[in-house]
Amino acid sequence: MTAADDTTAPTTLRPTDLRSVREAVLDSAGGLAIAGAGTAAAWGGDLDAVDSVLDMTGVTGVIAHNPGDMTVSVHAGTPLRRLNSELAPHGQQVSLDAARIARGATVGGLVATADAGPAALVHGSLRDLVIGTTVVLADGTVARSGGHVIKNVAGYDLAKLVHGSYGTLGVLVEVVLRLHPVPKRTTTVALDCPLAEASGHARRVLDGPYEPVALEWRSDSDGSGDGPAATEAGRLLVRVEGTEDALSGRARRLRAALGPAATEIAADAEAEEWAAHAERVRGGPGHAVLRLGALPSALPGLLAALPGAATPDAALTIGLGTGVATAALPADAEAIEAAHRAVHAAGGTSALRDRPTGFGGPAWGPAPSAVGVLKAVKTALDPAGRFGPGRFAPWFELTSPGRTT
Amino acid sequence: MALEAGVRSAFARAIGAENVIDDPVRCRSYECDGLTGYRVVPELVLLPRDAEAVAAAVRMCAQHKVPFVARGAGTGLSGGALPVADGVVISLSRLKRVLEVDPVNRRAVLEPGVTNLEITAAAAPHGLYYAPDPSSQQVCTIGGNVAENSGGAHCLKYGFTTNHVLSMEVVLPDGSVVTLGGDTAEQAGPDLRGVFLGSEGTLGITTKITVRLLRTPETVRTLLADFPSVSAAGDVVSDIVAAGIVPAAVEMMDTLAIEAAEEAVHAGYTVGVPAALVVELDGPVEECDVQFEQVKAICDKHGCTRLHIAGGPQERAAIWRGRKAAFAAVGRISPDYFVQDGVVPRTRLAEVLDRIARMGRDAGLRVANVFHAGDGNLHPLVLYSAAAGETERAEKLSGEIAELCVELGGSLSGEHGIGTDKACSMPKMFGEDDLAVMHRVRGAFDPDGLCNPGKVLPTPRLCGERPGRYRPHPLEESGVIERL
Ligand SMILES: Cc1cc2nc3c(=O)[nH]c(=O)nc-3n(C[C@H](O)[C@H](O)[C@H](O)COP(=O)(O)OP(=O)(O)OC[C@H]3O[C@@H](n4cnc5c(N)ncnc54)[C@H](O)[C@@H]3O)c2cc1C
Fold first, then answer.
1. A195 touches A221 (CB < 8 A)
2. CA-based angle A260:A263:A268, to the nearest 5?
3. Which of A234, A298, B53, B237 has fewest C-beta within 10 Å?
4. pLDDT value of position A199
């Protein structure tokens, strides 16, 4: 059942700071959906009907930026794009390039969905960049963990629990992030090849001294149906970052390693090239988008065998070093169920992202072996199951509070 | 209350009598870790031979409500592996196989008793290495590294243990076996792997660990630079960072530390200078060349009095030998010392060193400083003489320094962990609610409170007791490992 089936719409709560978030949680009863900018509102399991929506887009702004320490604390509702544009004059950035940042995704939403982009090859996901968090729990408890320094092992790292929790454990209100220098220059070397050849080329890059910050293959097909099959034609993209003086030499060596067909993308076309990659990660209106992770060596074969992948109706991206891929597949519930099974059989994990409303296919694959711990953590932090009911169905079997009215 | 005979024999049945030590004299070898001031002799020491036996041992503990403490090499500096009275120690020292090195996917699968350095040794033939490099790496185990989220000199650029571990097989405190994490960083659901990393042995026992391996960098450039003041050296660090350079390592030593290190290993440091910096860059040749010139110019700008560039691997090793020897070498200039592991925001380095110096003067004690300047992780060494009755004063100063780091916006610990040592200082850094929530999370893993109880989170019983004086780790005395 989704909220849309109900006759009364949930109440929207619009807090603006830590105190008002806490009040909103305490003053409401029943199920609560935590909402950021809405760029991933439908990811994961369908939410059950809730009484209230906690709109975090009013809890925004930098709390403190310490340029010398390269850290920033920020309200969770701040769009990452905006944060990075505020940091840019200092030559600093949050080194995350998830596809939906361009659409206004908030810091909190990106943490909660464990999202990341190609640069995860070097910088990891936000789990690797968050150094402190303030979270409001269902009973109004305000819990801080971590701190403001990049090196810190004091206490349990609760930020990790929130990472990938899809709004089911607590409300992330403040986040402290580690920053990196904005690279003086970046460049991307490209090589057109079908999916089946991508691994071989990637191996040559990884085995050399090139230190790419991103190493991806993407299909030429964007899944709209009027091109070649997604597996048949595509492009290997290798991004390197560095100093003005050194980068040309590095790019030359990299091109040589990839052979005569490799080209360096012109500086003014680089952003566009990566935007096209991001577009495939996001998928189109008729797609069910599956995010998956598996051993890099197994990934191309696994991806090619997913139902519908080898057609012009699919769009594919693969991180050949990270082992993280996205498959925007023709939306078909049975096909997605089969895809989850195939990924699981290969030892990987999968999660369903955007899909047409009322799609009905499963959001998650089989539950992980530690699902008992997940349930115990959920019970310890949100015993009544108020936050994000349904998101992890069928993994969490807490009785949903549903609608109280 | 000692363990009943029936319970003792149950352990022997579960994992084989030959794998159980119950002779109190032999159990005594396990009475402490690297924080030698705290000692507790365990009731039994269990030495399981494989993961199944670890699970069997933990199931026995759960069934008979016996507290247990996992132990790797026992090099921890915060009393994390300190046994619990009436409890057992489960040593992972016999689980020491490298199960797999996969050069294509760049990962290694290890049993928990494999040492940190053995991972790199197994990866090296493929041109790969394991990045986190605690200076105890010759002996400390990957299981201990996971528990402590250990760091090293190179973690400024490459990150800590938590950034390099993909998955772990874990025996939960009820004896069930689960996998946290998986083949890639992409995992569905909350990051339990991340919660377990750095939990100091309080959430379960790891029996198998998969780590990422990195390609050995093409070049490494190392320099040693002397400065007329600690603040000049601090300014160099700030300027390097401001130039957008992320060095592989930036380490600082003050006069006392230099003096001690030079006396011990003659690595070519200048005795008498107020501060020395070790800066290392690594990566593609072109990039290192450009940035190394920038670093040299920054050193000159801040009045560097001597710049020594490592001419080759041997000179580089000498610079590092001096840096790493500083710790143990302090033993040469002082009969006893305490070590702290606090962190401050990098921009407050000069301020904190100034205040530490003043606090030392007020207490009538010398403090030597050796630290990871790039990430603000201090290792102040409070020098004292127990024979002269200075222990209590030194201990107090040492605790005050850790708490000063918190006051300046930092942390009680950058890499050694909270353990037994700093559990009572946790309320300085976290509020009651923060600690209560951590307690709830712990309870989700360990409802019966059997897994390394009394560590990390403060308890009234623990916080009433006082530690003994610091004594060097036996391996440190014999020169096998150095303290960083
Ligand atoms: C001279 C010296 C230098 C050092 N330098 C550094 C440094 O540079 N950086 C740094 O970070 N640390 C350093 N340390 C601290 C120490 O070496 C690390 O904390 C190390 O990770 C401990 O590993 P170990 O195998 O000795 O673990 P132990 O000391 O045996 O145990 C440490 C903790 O891990 C738990 N544990 C051990 N194995 C497991 C397991 N399999 N499953 C669950 N829990 C387990 C124990 O219960 C305990 O809480 C140094 C120590 C010394 C003595």
1. no
2. 165
3. A298
4. 96
B176 contacts chain A (CB < 8 A): yes
Measure Cα distances from B456 to B134, B204, B424, B461 in Å.
Answer: 21, 14, 9, 13
- Whether the pLDDT of residue B469 is over 50: the answer is no
Listed residues B271, B293, B328: the one ending a domain = B328
Tell me whether residue A281 is in a domain: yes
**Which pLDDT band holds residue B37 (cuts at 50, 70, 90)?**
confident
8-state DSSP, B451? B
Query: Could you read off the pLDDT of B144-172 as tens digits, one per residue?
Result: 999 999 999 999 999 999 999 999 999 99
Task: Tell me whether residue A24 is in a domain.
Answer: yes
Per the CB < 8 A criterion, the answer to whether A105 and A82 are in contact is no
If asked whether residues B200 and B156 sit together in one domain, one would say: yes
Closest chain B C-alpha to A135 CA, distance in angstroms:
10
Domain boundary among B41, B63, B91: B91
- Which structural domain, as residue segments, surrounds residue B38? 5-91
Residue reference for tokens 């490209």? A190
The reply to whether residue B434 touches residue A116, judged by beta carbons under 8 angstroms, is no
- Location of structure tokens 């696994």: A302
Query: Are B227 and B197 in the same domain?
Result: no
pLDDT of res. B429: 95
Can you tell me which atom of ligand 1 is nearest the CA of B153?
8
In this structure, the answer to whether residues A217 and A294 fall within a common structural domain is: yes
Are residues A234 and A195 part of one domain?
A: yes
What pairs with residue B45 in β-bridges? B21, B89
Indicate whether A200 and A57 sit together in one domain.
no
- Nearest CB to A323: which of B183, B244, B346? B183
State mean pLDDT over B324-346.
87
Instruction: Show the low-confidence residues of chain A (pLDDT under 50).
Output: 1-4, 402-405
| Surface of B (87-146) touching A: CB under 8 A | 104-106, 127
CATH classification at residue A168: 3.30.465.10
Could you tell me the distance, in angstroms and rounded to a whole number, from the CA of residue A158 to the centre of ligand 1? 22
**Cα torsion at B110, B114, B117, B121 (round to 10°)?**
-60
Which residue of chain A has the CA closest to B151?
A: A151
Size (chain A), residues: 405
Range of the domain at A141: 1-182+367-405
Q: What is the pLDDT of residue B473?
A: 53
Mean pLDDT to the nearest integer, B455-472: 67
Q: Looking at this predicted complex, what is its ipTM?
A: 0.95
Alpha-carbon separation of residue B423 from B30, B194, B435, B459 (angstroms)? 21, 21, 11, 8
Identify whether residues A198 and A177 lie together within a single domain: no
Q: Are A172 and A146 in contact (CB under 8 A)?
A: no
User: Are B184 and A350 in contact (CB < 8 Å)?
Assistant: no
